[in-house]
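Hi, does anyone understand the following?
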Amino acid sequence: MKRGGHARRAVALFFLAAFAALVWPVYSYFGGARPLILGIPQSLFYVSAWLLASFLVLLALYLYEER
């Protein structure tokens, strides 16, 4: 496997997990308006956390492939 192949596979698996976490039925466990987390509804916090995690994973992959 070429350089970075394992990292790309891990990132692809992460994004499959992120997709699965943001669609029904998993999202329905976190889809409520209450409780408030950091002043925002739980559902918005849940989606924002996955978005931030996705950004950090892509940043890590970029930095890994640049070195």
Q: What stands out?
A: The longest helix spans residues 42-66. Residues 5-66 form one domain. The chain has a mean pLDDT of 91.
